[in-house]
Amino acid sequence: MRKTYINGTGCLSAQKTFDTVFLEDAEWNKNDNVLFLKKPVYKDFISPIASRRMANGIKNGIVASAYAMKEANVTNVDAIITGTGMGCIEDTEKFLKAIIDNNEEFLTPTAFIQSTHNTVGAQIALTMQCKGYNFTYVNGAISFESGLLDAKMQIEENEANSILVGGVDENGDHILSLFKLAGYIKEDRKEPYQLLNETTKGYIHGEGACFFVLENEKKESTYAQLVDLEIKNVLQEDEIETEIIDFLKLNNLEISDIDAIILGFNGDVEFDSYYKNLAENAFANTPQIYYKHLCGEYNTASAFGLWTGSKIIKTQTIPELIKSNSIERPAYNTILLYNQLNGKDHSFTLISK
Amino acid sequence: MDALKLELKNKIITVLNLEDITLGDINDNDPLFGDGLGLDSIDALELIVILDKDYGIKLIDPKEGKVIFQSIESMAAYITANRTK
User: Fold this and answer.
1) Nearest CA to A110 among B79, B50, B23, B24?
2) What interface predicted TM-score (ipTM) does this complex get?
3) Which of A117, A184, A229, A299 is the most exposed place for a label (fewest CB within 10 A)?
4) Domain A5-215 is of which CATH architecture?
5) Do B46 and A107 count as a contact with CB atoms less than 8 A apart?
6) Is A227-352 a CATH 3.40.47.10 domain?
7) Which of B15, B19, B33, B50 to mutate to test the interface with A (most CBs of A within 10 A)?
8) Which domain holds residue B6?
9) CA dist list (Å): B10 to B19, B50, B56, B61
10) Nearest residue of chain B to residue A55 (CA atoms)
């Protein structure tokens, strides 16, 4: 079975995570309950003619992919796999609003074409003329991990040598208002939003696009090896620790072998206890990292988590801004990521040097 | 007629999201498709909807579009002659 290596990454988020090394320009915005992506100069990557119909999510996906491909020093890949929870929600909103506003008449094609979830992967493929396998996973908060698992299996089984895989989600005005109404997002004007010390329901929302080039060979640009990945849709809070121990055991590891754990804390007091239990018990003596105060919560925010883990292994540094305890290790060679959303869609990702 | 041409140019820039195009870049007799403004078949559908929604003109024969959407001049002339609102 062949190994899978992360050989290039491209990340667009609420922080300036492009054309930087590792969060040196990051700023923690405690004033807003919704974080918006820091836009690159799209014209540097996409011609104005091509980009004029593209939704933000598509443009962000193309740019993040371009960064990942450049880092991995590849011009094409065998497959493109995209994970997205809400797809191009802005154009979906536009299209649905037009139906209502115009009494189901005068419907134009542009917003509809761009509103489908698989448009991001399709446009990335068109940009690089990739005619290989192209698949989009829409599985809530494990959309990205589903794509990652697919890519890993294809590389392991010798079906592909290089795969571009990523997670994309964008903010849409109407969906944000619905999320606020449903109590998913923290109440307006309750700043400062502290994330780790929150006592209220709801999370800080965000958006982003994060892509990775996975290959079957280690090279100069390699960040880390993607060792293993597990997805569980349903787990009780008291089952998480046992699940992690079993997952590590499958990889001949114990908790003490983990050099850092990246937890998906999002500030929601109702579900952050899943992480808190691990942080205070099983992983109390392990360096702990959190990241959603920088990128916000969204269905594919865990891709930002993987980007963070990959950067830690490559640079062997952990920026102070993402440390949630003061424990350090002489080297960060093995990192475990755990993520869930609203107590569902649990994922465990193991990467190593 | 001049006001209508200006209105059409504004609509085309906004609806077709022509970010880098200004009013001054569109001459009344420039071809809208092909070598001129470079519009494509999806844009043609958007233009048909503009005619219907804003001027009450329903294009029944798609072949008519080729003549009508040749330029801002031809669009304005057709709208002036056929508009119902």
Assistant:
1) B50
2) 0.76
3) A184
4) 3-Layer(aba) Sandwich (3.40)
5) no
6) yes
7) B19
8) 2-82
9) 12, 12, 18, 26
10) B17
Shortest Cα–Cα distance, A17 to chain B (Å):
26
| Interface residues on A facing B, Cβ-Cβ cutoff 8 A | 48-49, 51-53, 102, 105-110, 113
Angle between helices A143-156 and A302-315 (to 10 degrees): 50
Q: Cα(A60)–Cα(A54) distance, rounded to whole angstroms? A: 10
Question: Do residue A110 and residue B52 have CB atoms under 8 angstroms apart?
Answer: no
Give the number of domains in chain B.
Answer: 1
Q: How far is A108 from chain B (nearest CA, A)?
A: 6
User: Residue-wise pLDDT tens for chain A (353 aa)?
Assistant: 899 999 999 999 999 999 999 999 999 999 999 999 999 999 999 988 788 889 999 999 999 999 999 999 999 999 999 999 999 999 999 989 989 998 888 888 888 888 889 999 999 999 999 999 999 999 999 999 999 999 999 999 999 999 999 999 999 999 999 999 999 999 999 999 999 989 999 999 999 999 999 999 999 999 999 999 999 999 999 999 999 999 999 999 999 999 999 999 999 999 999 999 999 999 999 999 999 999 999 999 999 999 999 999 999 999 999 999 999 999 999 999 999 999 999 999 999 99
Q: Where residue B52 sits, what CATH number does that domain have?
A: 1.10.1200.10
Contact state of B19 with A48 under an 8 Å Cβ cutoff: yes
Q: Which residue intervals of chain A bear CATH 3.40.47.10?
A: 5-215, 227-352
Interface contact flag, A107 B42, Cβ < 8 Å: no
Helix residue spans in chain A (DSSP H): 48-51, 56-72, 89-101, 109-115, 119-128, 143-156, 173-181, 240-250, 273-280, 292-295, 302-315
Q: Which residues does chain A have within 8 Å of residue B19's beta carbon, measured at their own beta carbons? A: 48, 51-52
Count Cβ–Cβ pairs < 8 Å, chain A vs chain B. 27
Q: Does the distance separating the beta carbons of A53 and B17 come in below 8 Å? A: yes
Strands (E) in B1-85, as ranges, are none
